[in-house]
Structure formats: C-alpha cells, structure tokens
Amino acid sequence: MKIPVVVSAIVVSSCLSVPAQANGKLNWEIGRHADLATEALGYLSAGRLPESETVVRLLDRRRITIDGDKVAERVELVYYYPSTDSVQDNGVDTVYWDTSGEHLTMLESAVISPTGDHHAFDPSTAELIDADSYKVFTDTTSVVMQLPHLQPGSLSVLSYQRELLEPDNYHFNVWVQDSLVTELKEVIVTWTDTAPAWHLAESDMQCSTSPRQLTCRAEQVPAADLDVDVLYADVLPQLNVSAPKSWDDIIGDMWELIEPAMEAGPNLQAAIEDVSAVDQPLHAAHALASKDIRYVSFSKGEHSHRPHAVERTLANRYGDCKDKSTLLLSLLRATGTQAYPVLVATERADASALVVPSRGYFDHMIVCAIVDGTERCFDPTDAYTPVTETSYGIQGRVRLNLVPGAAPTTVGSDLYLWRFKIKSNLQFQADGSQVEHAERVYEGALAGLYRDTLGGRNAKDLQEWLGDQYRETVSSDTEPKFAVDMLNNIDVPLKLESETTFDPFVDPDTALDYTDTTFWLRKFMSDQRIGNEHYPVSFPGIQAEAVYRFDLNGLWRPWSTGAEVDFESEFGKFERTYQVDGQAIVVTTKIALPRREVGVEEFERFNRYVSLIYDEMDMRFWGTLIN
User: Is the alpha carbon torsion for 579, 584, 585, 589 positive or negative?
Assistant: First the structure.
C-alpha cells in the first residue's frame, strides 16, 4: 500500500449501497475563501518555519460535522517547501474523491511565495484520474492539481469539503502518521444528536471529549517509517470515526442489499439446472461465475455498493465482484451448498485493528462455503485459481462473514502459497552439446498467476513470452520450444514443457568435471530475501522440488558427485541428494519453507538462510572416460 505524500486518502463507506440518487458532484469555489491563506501567512510573518530539506506539512486540520442527515468533512492543509528538491518532488496536490458517495467542494488551493504573494490555482488545469485498484468496488477519482509559481521557501494551502450522500453509514479513517513530517495534526468532530463511534490507535495524538465534540491533537508528528513489504493500514496509527453501529447492524444492512439481487428468474433457473446436471456442481458454479461472466467494474452511483440483480448479470454476461459473488452465492445455495457472502479488506491483515464496526474498511466481496465439513473461500473475480484453492490476493486478508454474530477475522492461508516442481532430463551428445527435455509443474495460486499471464495469448506470443523467460532464467543463447498442458483447465496443475539444445561446452575426449545450476529454484529464491527494516513480514511459504537427470550417454562413467545437503532451520528445510542410475546421475533438490510471520529481530537470520539456499543451487559431479 502506498500512502499519498500530499493528501492521505480518507475512506468513506466503501462497499455496498448508496441511496438511489445522483452521483457526487465536484464544485470549485476557489477565490471565494481566504481563511487558510491568511492563517498560512502567519507562519511567514512570525518566522515559524522549520529547518528542513524536505517538504513539511505545517498544518493538517480536519473538521468532521455530523448534523442529522448531513455529514461533512472539511480538510485544511498547509505545506512548506524549503528546497529545490522539495519543490521538484512534491509540487502536486491530490485529493481523493468518492464520486458516487460524496459531493466534493474545493475551497482553497494556492501558493504563497516567500515574499507573501498569493497565487491561486486555476481549476481549468486540474486533472481527474481514476484512482481505484482493479477488482475493488470503491469508485474513487483523484483530483490532481499542479501548483503554480512554486519555488523554494514557498507555502501551499489546500482546503476542501466532502459532503456524504449516505450519512447513515459514514466512516472516516484519519492517518496520524504518513510519509511527511507534520507540525500540527488536529481533528475536530462535532455532532448535534447521536455521538459517533470512534477509536484512536496508540500514538502521540491526544483526544478529549465534551458533550458534543471530540478534539484530537498532536504536535511534531514524525514521518512514518516506510518499508518494502507492509500493509500500512495494519501498522500506522489511525483515528477511526464511524456511525455508531454493531457488526450485526453492518451484516443486516448488507443483506438488505444482497437479498433482492438474488431473486430467481428464468436466467438463474436455467443456470441452476445447468450446474446441477454435472457431476461436480461446485466446480461448474465457480466456472460460470468466475470465467463465463467477465469482470466489468460497476461501482457507480447506486451500484457503488449494491449488487445488480443476478438475472441482469446472467443476461449481460458481465459484472463486478459484488455481482459475480451474488451469482455464485445463488448457485451454491440452490445446489445445496451452505454458502455465505464475505466482505474483504484487501489492504488489511490485522482483524484486531477493526475496533469500530464499519463497512468502510472493506473494498471487496467474495463467497465462502462449507464443503465436506471444511470452509472454502472463492474469489469469483479470479478466473484462474482452482476451486480447491484460495486466491493468493485474499489469503490472510481481513474479512467479515455476512452471517449473524460474525466479527472480523482473516481469510485462511496456505501453509505453502508457492508450490511447483521441476523435472529436467539432460542428455550429453557426442560433440559435447546437451539436449534437455524439461517440465515445470505449477500448483495452486502459482498456477493461477501463470494462467492469468499466459491466458489469451496466441501461439506465437505464448512461445515468445516463455522463450524470453527461459533465456532470462537459464541461458541467453538458446531457442527452446514449448508445449503448454492444461492451460485452460484450472482444476489441475499447469505443466510447461520445453525442448532445448545447448551448444557444445564440454570436451567429450577428456574426463568430465561438470557443474550445473537449478536455475528455476535459484531465480525464485533470489526474490525471497526480506527488504524490510521496521515492520514484520508475512512470508507466504514455498514448497519446491527440482529433479535433474543427467544422462552421460555412454561417454563417461559416473565417478563422484558433490556433497549431499540437509540444512534445517527454524524457517524450514533445504535438501540435496545425488543418485547414480546406470549411466545417469539424478540430482534432487527440495525446498520447504512454510508460511510464517518473520519478526524484525529475525530478518538477518532469515536472509542468511535464504542466501545459504541460493548459494547452494549448484550441482556438481565427475565422470571418467569409458574408452
């Protein structure tokens, strides 16, 4: 997750239904307000500018007003740009706008020069950019503003107001820390009737309450420590302010939106008959919802949260995650499977952090079911992961089962997320060349990723992509030929076969001193070192095996092999064995590193173990001439 440098995104009711009314509007009132610019001038006139080489947020004030059927938030930001680099790297303001859930009014955007001159932003130069990730059901647009007349020593001011179109389900997530130093952070929440639910994660921010106001304040807030692999929503302190509801309220609200969409009609009845007629109705239902219904985002207006009717989804043959999940749910229930919809927060893995009940944390919907006494979870936006596996994108993510009495937990995770096997038969030729027949077999989520990458390519493109990958991994001087087995049948492992001839590189007239490398394993292990410094990492788990059979083809007699290896640590196991099979030498390499949380204090040991495995990828043996 990347936290915006200029303006931290505030998530406002992400998932399922907005009342049937027009989409939110964007209004520009720049030029009619000067309060914030006047306040910013006080920093200049009083000489209250910090010493820094990087941009500093002098003020971050948020006023949240809850007044019956009107809920609004006013944001006021002041930035200081002390250097040329800070101007070059940060001269853009970005505001994230939920186009289906709120009216956005831009109140102030201007640059104040070091001498106090005021340069207002021209709204005609603003850019509107779709800011949503693929397959989530938020409807967010970023309003991007290039700041005019910015120079070292300048200040910029930005003020805007959001008015929510669905005040009954408001949710504000305010970051206490992000990637910038903040001199003053202030949140003021006022209400006229019912107090909101709120929670502040442990931080230096202090809050106080009065009968109708919550005030939270922090000074000299340092920039957050950033890392390579981290879900920032899990680790950075936040203030959450939400409509006062229980998780059962959220679940009930969601069913009011989902249940009408499940109403059966001729299209659904026909689909139920089709999936019921086969030996494995679960597989058929999953294939229909995930693959036969193509993904199209419909997080607009009323349907930013509400699924379309299953009848319409089947008629159109497309839908978003809510539509595809509602269809799958209808099919599974109709064929006797105990199934239930599930909300997923794709950027969160710590369910304990969801202290205040709200649907605003969630941006995705899936379906889980009880199959043979075991829960399975299906993401019908993933057309490539087998029905027996859990999509890698939702494993370990926070979820809310939409069943009475449920509370946030996490989606189950595989002990080994990445699973694959390599089999290579290399035969030496009389001229010192080699002919290799290799098989790579990918299972589970990894097979799904490959199918997603390779699916839809024509034969020529498929050969080119696989050839480029082979040359990058094994040898740049080869022209392998490939065969792909079970590309479209997602319920079985994916097999990639290759035939390759390597140019002569050994002398068939001398004793053999040979070294080769388990290239596919080495390439995979090269990406497993942890790059974090500050936050723990959830290592996904690897189970891999490579079996290389070297056929000496009567040219040499096997004489000796490299040392066998059996390395076992707290993180897993690495094994290498050699076997002489007549005129062939068989080398087997196994890696089993299970999923686990790796703490900061373990990084050095973990990376050292990964490096040890990486360094032991060479296979070595010797042979004597036969004639």
Answer: negative
Supply the pLDDT for residue 22: 42
* Closest-CA residue to 130 (of 160, 91, 97, 90): 97
Do 26-244 and 248-410 show the same overall fold?
no
**pLDDT digits 0-9 by tens, 87-131:** 999 999 999 998 888 999 999 999 999 999 999 999 999 999 887
Q: Kindly report the CATH number that applies to the domain delimited by 26-244.
A: 2.60.40.3140
3-state secondary structure 150-195: CCCCEEEEEEEEEEECCHHHCEEEEECCCCCEEEEEEEEEEECCCC
Q: Give residue 183's pLDDT band: very low, low, confident or very high (50, 70, 90).
A: very high
* Closest C-alpha to 10, from 59, 54, 63: 63
Tens of pLDDT, residue by residue over 485-512, are 888 888 899 999 999 999 998 999 999 9
Q: Are 314 and 330 in contact (CB under 8 A)?
A: no
Full-model pTM = 0.90
Q: For the chain, what are the domain ranges?
A: 26-244, 248-410, 418-625
Topology, domain 248-410 = C8orf32 fold (3.10.620)
- Answer yes or no: is pLDDT of 304 > 60: no
Q: Look up residue 134 and give its DSSP letter.
A: T
Coil/strand/helix, residue 295: strand
CA distance 67 to 75: 17
